[in-house]
Design brief:
Radius of gyration: 15 Å
CATH superfamily: Ribonuclease H-like superfamily/Ribonuclease H
Number of domains: 1
Order of helices and strands: EEEHEHEHHH
CATH architecture: 2-Layer Sandwich
Largest sheet: 5 strands, mixed
Distance between the termini: 17 Å
Structural class: alpha/beta
Strand content: 15-25%
């Protein structure tokens, strides 16, 4: 089963794809979609949508996992990230791929065992767990791999708790 993890944003959208076969989770790819500050915001959103649709078409994930929004100190940033996340959710809906959402706390707890882990810890653990030669860059891609890892572990460990996949959104 291929799982696409997404770390939403509007300047950088991290993505990471893992494959789960039995109890083994392996790295497929990771990276980020970048938009420029000089671009109009709606053009940035359009680019995110189009590129995400290409990723989904190219890798055909069975499940997509996305990190939910958490508290932002800057309301303007929160609104922009929320709008980008809405475009990402629209792409997921149009792809007809089931998805899961995880809070940053859930992802950190699943990956490191500590819900308040720092970004560097997430990066190091993802490098180790996925047997990568180097720490995944940028940070957003490492976060997306962690979201995908969380989905791979949670989906398998809690399949019965999903009550016939009721918690998986379509």
């Amino acid at each position: 089963m291929k799982i696409l993890g997404i770390d939403p944003g509007y300047g950088i959208v991290g993505y990471g794809i893992v494959e789960k076969a039995g109890n083994k989770i392996t790295h497929v790819t990771h990276g980020a979609l970048f938009t420029g500050k000089e671009e109009r915001f709606e053009d940035r959103l359009d680019y995110i949508y189009a590129e995400l649709m290409k990723l989904i078409a190219q890798y055909s994930p069975e499940i997509i996992a996305i990190e939910s929004l958490y508290f932002y100190k800057n309301a303007k940033t929160a609104i922009y990230v929320g709008e980008a996340r809405g475009v990402i959710l629209l792409a997921i809906k149009h792809s007809k791929t089931p998805y899961l959402e995880f809070t940053p706390h859930q992802v950190k707890l699943t990956v490191t065992g500590y819900g308040r882990a720092e970004k560097k810890q997430i990066q190091s653990v993802m490098k180790m767990l996925l047997k990568l030669d180097e720490i995944p860059k940028p940070d957003d891609a490492a976060d997306a791999l962690a979201v995908a890892w969380c989905a791979a572990v949670s989906y398998t460990n809690h399949l019965n708790a999903f009550s016939s996949l009721d918690r998986i959104k379509r």
